[in-house]
Structure formats: C-alpha cells, structure tokens
Amino acid sequence: MKPLRVALADDEPLARTRLARLLREAGCEVKAELVDGPSVLAWVKAAPEVDALFLDIQMPGATGLEVAVELADCRNCPPIVFVTAFSEHAVRAFEAAAVDYILKPVSAERLARSLARLGEGGPKRVDTAPAPQRFPVKAGEGHVFLDLKRTTHFEVETEVVWAWAAGTRHRTAWTTLAEVEAAFPGAGLLRIQRHLLLRPEAVLGLKPLEGGRASVRVAEGLDLEVSRSVTPRLKELLGL
C-alpha cells in the first residue's frame, strides 16, 4: 500500500514537531507543516494532493473549525482530522464533517486508529451514526458494560476515572474526564467541578447553597456540589 500523504497545522512548534514525527513513524508522508488558519486555506486552495489534513482547533488567523467551514465546498479538500487539547469542541467538529477528533497529547496508538480509518478508503466525511452509549468497566478479572443512561456522573481521582451508577462507582479505562467527554460528544455531559462530570438528566433534586453554588442529588444519600460558575448553566438545563 502507498503511504498516506498528510499535512498538519498547529501554531505550537513542539506540538507540530511531535505530531509530524508520530505521523512519519506511522509510515505517512508529511507534505506540509503549517502554522495558522490562513496558511492552511492558502495551501489547500493551491490544489495539493494529500489524503488527510490534521488540524489544530485553536490557531491564529482562523481556527481549525473556521478553516473546515471555509473548505466545506472546496472540491479538492482532503478529509479533516482535528487534533486538540479541548474536548468541548467535539460536537462542532463532527458538525463540520470531520473524519476524526483526537485529543492531545496524541498517542501513537490513537493516531494509528485514525490512520487505519483513513487508509481503509472510507468516506471523506464522518458518518453521523450515534456514538456508542455503553462502555466497559472493571468487574473482577474481567469487564462488564455499563449503559451511559444508567450513569449519574463520572469522577476522576489520581488519573483513574470512576463511573457512578445507582450510588456505586465502577472503575473505567479512562484516565481523564476529557476522554469521557470525547467518547460521548453529544451526550450533554456537564463539568460541575474540575473532578466531576455530571449527566444532567440524572439529577433528582437541586438545593441552592451560599455563594451562588448548588448541591444536586443523583442517588439516595449521594449529593454533588456544583461550582458557582456552572450553577446557572445547570439550572437552565434543568428548566429552573
């Protein structure tokens, strides 16, 4: 098989160099390393022959999302893979018809999965099938699958993410809440504390606290504190 021809864009030199190295180590031919939105637009419109474009989202001049919108009607636009440190852009990325969405720091294993998808000759635009709503959690020496709709919230402790369901926590394979958000981009999960990710539909009750904060009940005897900055958004979601 011919190596995939790719281009990448990131305004951070270290991140750009690292991604280029990972792509080359994966067998790709890196045709261009770009530094901002305008340079990407100019380069793509010059009719390059590449199989994929790896875009950072937060770039000067034009964000990766703005670049994708600008290139939507471009006949020679290659498939786009977003590479970013911010999981909150996932929904908009897929709305922009991205092929994939990779969170930094990029691992060789995660990049390999994205390249395999590109190399299979699939569609240039991501299919819009609903994301899986189940995920594995540890059970003794093996795993069982937990339904997202049974999950009230996720909690991270020392690089271990725990999923809570029916007042019991279950160990997942994730190490950050950003990975959970990326796994369920359309689920409406809400970060209520740095270490807590809530499924608003699981809230059974809400109690105001001093200083503009709130406490929510998600199971019998299990209350979670919501930060002051997030409380107004949660109340809005709950119709309060």
Structural account:
The protein is an alpha/beta fold and 240 residues long. It has 2 domains: 5-119, Response regulator (Rossmann fold), CATH 3.40.50.2300; 135-237, LytTr DNA-binding domain (OB fold (Dihydrolipoamide Acetyltransferase, E2P)). Helices cover 25% and strands 31% of the residues. It contains 7 helices and 15 strands. The protein has helices spanning 13-25, 37-45, 64-70, 90-95, 108-119, 177-183, 231-237; strands spanning 5-9, 29-34, 52-55, 80-84, 100-103, 134-139, 142-147, 151-157, 160-165, 168-171, 190-193, 196-198, 205-208, 214-219, 222-226. The strands form 4 sheets. It has a 5-stranded parallel beta sheet with strand order 2-1-3-4-5. A hairpin with a 5-residue loop joins strand 13 (205-208) and strand 14. Helix 2 (37-45) runs parallel beside helix 3 (64-70). The longest helix has 13 residues, at 13-25. The radius of gyration is 20 Å and the shape is elongated. 30% of the residues are buried.
Content of β-strand? 25-35%
Query: Within the largest sheet, what's the order of strands?
Result: 2-1-3-4-5
**What general form does the structure show?**
elongated
* CATH class identity of the largest domain: Alpha Beta
Overall structural class, as computed from helix and strand content, comes to: alpha/beta
Low-pLDDT runs of 5+ residues are: 121-130
* N-to-C CA distance: 57 Å
What Rg, in angstroms, do the CA atoms define?
A: 20 Å
What string gives the helices and strands in order?
Answer: EHEHEHEHEHEEEEEHEEEEEH
In the residues, how many domains can be counted? 2
Number of helices: 7
CATH-defined topology of the largest domain: Rossmann fold
Largest sheet: 5 strands, parallel
Q: What name goes with the CATH superfamily of the largest domain?
A: Response regulator
Task: Give the tally of β-strands.
Answer: 15
